[in-house]
Amino acid sequence: MAERRPKRFWLIEVWDEHREIYKAIIGHALIVALIIGILALFHFATELLHLPDDYKATINKIEFYGTIIALVILVVGFTLEVIAFIVRRSKS
Q1: Neighbouring residues of 28: CB distance < 8 A, sequence distance ≥ 6
Q2: pLDDT at residue 54, as a whole number
């Protein structure tokens, strides 16, 4: 009879089995969520300050380009991590 293992949460199974690609996806998704959350809080905080329109426009530009730069850095980092994983896997 097959041995029954206790059912575990999928994230714990992924982590225990050292599935590097899934670890990278989860890590990068959490980082993206954190950055977007911080930028959203910053946006709402600037709306509450009732700043002049020219200041708001400048701050919105900074937020927009900051978001784009952060997402590009994360996508490039994730892509390099996946490529490194594929190279390591093909060597073994």
Answers
A1: 74, 77, 78, 81
A2: 92
Condensed to tens digits (0 to 9), the pLDDT of residues 47-72 reads 888 889 998 889 889 888 988 888 89
3-state helix, strand, coil in the chain (%, to 5): 80, 0, 20
Q: Which amino acid is at 6?
A: P
Task: Give Cβ neighbours of residue 54 (< 8 Å, ≥ 6 apart).
Answer: none
Q: Measuring CA to CA, how many Å separate 88 from each of 1, 26, 35, 82?
A: 37, 20, 29, 10
The DSSP symbol for 8 reads -
Q: Where are the beta strands (DSSP E) in the chain?
A: none
With 60 as the cut, is the pLDDT of residue 19 above it? yes
